[in-house]
Amino acid sequence: MVQASFLGPVPEESWRLRNGLPALLRPLEPPDLPLHWELFANCSAQSVYQRFFQKFERSKVSEADMARFIHFDRSRELALTAVQLPDGAPELGVVRLVDSGSSVLEFAVLVADPWHRLGLGRKLVQKAIAVARASQAERLEGYVLCSNLPMLTLCRQLGFAIERLAGEGLYQVSLLFETGS
């Protein structure tokens, strides 16, 4: 378990993807750097664009860039990685949560292409919801490109309010928690 100051301990959780593949959801740690490189190698340009809202070539991602994904401020951020069992590799996807200093947690998800449509994105978003509730956040929010219909559909199914941001090509998805939930 890892302690993020705004979250408390986050336990590991194992489950099976829709295709039966055993997976483990656990905190992302600095030794996971090689796994994180592999995650990006398994993502199409479209998947990376839908996560970061900009095009970038994997070949131009530097060691320093990748290190920033692994070495983050654990007092206000949390990253949970899904890895294949029993080996703990490859990394299948990641969900990140950031405490903006208010009662809102922002989340973002990246799932490597070979594991799309297997329930992994749903599992990662559901974990973000559970972590946000446990941290007593008032709201969980994220941003989704208008073209990312699978993510918009998933967020709608999970009860998120969806609002188009004028002129941005983005939707803001937000889930408001009842006080004391």
UniProtKB/TrEMBL annotation:
<dbReference type="Pfam" id="PF13302">
    <property type="entry name" value="Acetyltransf_3"/>
</dbReference>
<protein>
    <recommendedName>
        <fullName>N-acetyltransferase domain-containing protein</fullName>
    </recommendedName>
</protein>
<dbReference type="InterPro" id="IPR000182">
    <property type="entry name" value="GNAT_dom"/>
</dbReference>
<feature type="domain" description="N-acetyltransferase">
    <location>
        <begin position="23"/>
        <end position="178"/>
    </location>
</feature>
<dbReference type="GO" id="GO:0016747">
    <property type="term" value="F:acyltransferase activity, transferring groups other than amino-acyl groups"/>
</dbReference>
<dbReference type="InterPro" id="IPR016181">
    <property type="entry name" value="Acyl_CoA_acyltransferase"/>
</dbReference>
